[in-house]
Design a protein that fits this description.
- This protein is an alpha+beta fold.
- It contains 8 helices and 25 strands.
- A hairpin with a 2-residue loop joins strand 14 (230-234) and strand 15.
- The longest helix is centred in the C-terminal third of the chain and has 19 residues, at 417-435.
- The structure holds ligand ISC.
- The site of the ligand C=C(O[C@H]1C=CC=C(C(=O)O)[C@@H]1O)C(=O)O has 17 residues, from strand 13, strand 17 and strand 25.
- Its EC number is 5.4.4.2.
- Belongs to the isochorismate synthase family.
Length: 437
């Protein structure tokens, strides 16, 4: 029987590959994982290897990892979901036996993860340890096999042609456009620059997969359409995020903070104008600075010298311009990437400033649970290093084929509700177009 693992029985449960149910077991019981990584010539077209559903993927500019099968699964919920995950992962890593012949970020033991936005979310937060990982980074490729207990090695996947599902049409979900406009106005009435300076409000759109429910083609469309974003998939939660919440590599910590957006121009001249207008907009600079300061404040206790670029730059995506700042520091207290996502989440790019007031207003004005939207999504290695994005431009595909996508916008005193609504429409574009077939 595959291993069953619970880091803290009240908050988390886990199961091995093929296990039909979940059982709480004592804290000391951790899966004994055997991990072996070997160098391979190259990974041919990762995207063509993906299974139809429940893919594990982390990819940017062709580099990254795809996971196959499930050697172990850890589930968490509630306000301590990230600290529980950090503690559980330390125990899993300490109990694992690892042979890593390549030693690059992502080789050896890894788990793919996604965490719910809200402390009260019914959505589970997960770390999934795959049975097989194919990875590529900076011209080096590898194959990792991970076995739980006496399980036999899982097969290495072979290429297949993804079956394009019928185009999915999205309609307004909870908080349709008119209600979103009203919610933004309500938020503007509450922004006083003291008790609340910024809040990020999101809305939902809903579609349904019909026919063959193969979402590998959706991931291909996202990865090719948005190559500079992190294309991710964990537990049928998929998307293409431009925002790095935190990356930790051998004590170096980095982040890319985004906040402040503008539509792309329709030709080179208007596009440049749009970028310039964004760079010089006081409203967007304010919105951006709240997000940068929230990241610096959260990282400082762990990385006292952490800094951000002096001025934000404009980041060009196919659908939008964003104001962006890169952050860098050195981890001084041994924090893992999971410790740091716990420290950072939720940043002012997805919640607001100050955080408690913004989160309370989100709960009041958004009539839906965000699930894993705007939560951390990424991967962690056996040494605690890892890369985590904020889950943006994403959707959750539910078991019955319902697809729920979310997009939000930062509201500050100078915001105009109609502009914020238009911005969310642009942010839905990656998902809407990837599902359009
Ligand atoms: C909340 C979202 O975007 C955030 C990230 C970049 C720019 C943002 C903005 O300009 O409002 C948001 O802070 C979203 O995509 O759903």
């Amino acid at each position: 029987m595959p291993p069953v693992y619970s880091a803290t029985p009240t908050a988390c449960r886990a199961r091995g590959d093929g296990y039909a149910g979940s059982v709480s077991v004592p804290e000391q019981t951790v899966p004994a994982l055997t991990v072996s990584t070997v160098a391979i010539d190259d990974v041919e077209s990762t995207l063509e290897l993906l299974p139809p559903r429940r893919q594990l993927l982390w990819l940017r500019r062709g580099d990254g990892m795809a996971g196959f099968g499930e050697a172990a699964r850890l589930e968490f919920s509630g306000p301590t979901r990230m600290t529980d995950a950090a503690a559980a992962w330390r125990r899993v890593a300490a109990a694992a036996s690892v042979e890593d012949g390549i030693g690059v970020p992502g080789s050896g033991l890894i788990a793919f993860g996604a965490f719910a936005f809200s402390d009260h979310s019914p959505a589970t937060s997960v770390l999934v340890v795959p049975s097989v990982v194919l990875g590529r980074r900076n011209g080096r490729a590898w194959l990792t096999r991970i076995r739980a207990g006496n399980d036999i090695d899982a097969p290495v996947p072979s290429t297949r042609s993804a079956v394009h599902s019928a185009p999915v049409a999205f309609t307004a979900g909870a908080l349709p456009p008119d209600a979103f406009l009203a919610a933004v106005d309500a938020a503007l009435n509450r922004i006083d620059g003291v008790g609340l300076s910024k809040v990020v409000l999101a809305r939902e759109i809903v579609g349904r997969l019909t026919g063959p429910a193969d979402t590998a083609a959706v991931l291909s469309a996202l990865a090719t359409g948005y190559p500079d974003c992190w294309t991710f998939a964990v537990d049928d939660f998929l998307g293409s995020s431009p925002e790095t919440l935190v990356a930790v590599t051998k004590r170096t910590v980095t982040a890319r903070v985004l906040a402040g957006s503008a539509a792309r121009g329709t030709d080179a001249a208007t596009d440049q104008q749009a970028s310039l207008a964004l760079a010089t907009s006081a409203k967007d600079q304010d919105e951006h600075q709240y997000a940068v300061q929230s990241v610096l404040a959260a990282l400082r206790p762990h990385s006292p010298g952490v800094t951000s670029s002096e001025q934000p730059f404009t980041l060009r995506l196919p659908n939008l311009w964003h104001l962006a700042s890169d952050v860098e520091g050195t981890v001084a207290d041994g924090s893992s990437s999971l410790d740091l996502i716990d420290a950072l989440h939720p940043t002012a790019a997805v919640a607001g400033t100050p955080t408690p007031a913004a989160v309370a207003l989100i709960e009041e004005l958004e009539p839906f649970d965000r699930g894993r939207y705007a939560g951390p999504v990424g991967w962690v290695g056996g040494d605690g290093d890892g890369e985590w994005a904020i889950a943006l431009r994403c959707c959750q595909v539910e078991p019955d084929g319902t697809v729920r996508a979310y997009a939000g916008a930062g509201i500050v005193a100078e915001s105009v509700a109609e502009h914020e609504l238009a911005e969310t429409s642009l942010k839905f574009r990656p998902i809407v177009e990837a599902f359009a077939g």
